[in-house]
Amino acid sequence: MTNSRLGVFCIEDAHIQNYRSRVSVAPVLDSLSRLSAIPVQYRPVESKTEFSSIAQLWAERHSDAKPVMYISCHGAPGSIFLGDRLVSIERLADTLRTVNDSSVIYFATCSTPQISDTRLYQFLDRSNARAIFGYRKKISWFQSAAFEIIALNEILSWIQDGDLAEGPTMLQEKLSDQMKGLYKSLGFRMAYR
Fold it and tell me: Is 110 in contact with 138 (CB distance < 8 Å)?
């Protein structure tokens, strides 16, 4: 389904683009925008403070039009790395507490949702987000990029179609069926309320 209204707000840790790898999600987001006419806003950040400010700005002003917060950085179970600083999902939830309740958080990180169901649902309650998505394993950049182009399009269609209460299981099944191998090898996980 082409999605002409709702979009993605991406915050990427600028430190992920080190001199050796020069890896960034910007080309992936550009492809998503061009292929599916999805509005994308991309913001690289240099520090934890800048990340918090931009994330809060999204929660307060942009989460209606761009309901997917796409976070690209290194991760660990229950945390994300911003440069060399570890930030817990609990701290992130406090930053996002004013988010629109149909917004979702997509962790394009290694291992962040590799935590207990209790912590995942506490994150959803504290942040007010409808759902979170991410990977339980250490991920391949190329595999996750391929997966995310399809997954982000499907997630936005799910939100736009208004299937928030009834459709999360169908969304999960659709993603699993469409990309069974990647779904499994990346350890894709979603939680929703």
Answer: yes
* pLDDT recorded at residue 160: 83
User: For 101, how many CA atoms within 13 A lie in the half-sphere containing its CB?
Assistant: 4
Gap between the Cα atoms of 7 and 67, Å rounded: 6
Sheet with strand 131-135: strands edge to edge: 40-45, 8-13, 68-72, 104-108, 131-135, 188-192
What's the Rg (C-alpha) of the chain?
15
pLDDT of residue 20: 52
Domains and CATH numbers, the chain: 8-192 (3.40.50.1460)
More confident residue, 120 or 2: 120
Q: What's the confidence (pLDDT) of residue 135?
A: 96
Q: Are 38 and 32 in contact (CB under 8 A)?
A: yes
Q: How many CB atoms lie within 10 A of CB 29?
A: 24
Token representation of residue 135: 């990977």
- As a whole number of angstroms, the distance between CA 21 and CA 40 comes to 23
The whole-model pTM stands at: 0.91
Q: What average pLDDT does the segment 7-24 reach?
A: 77
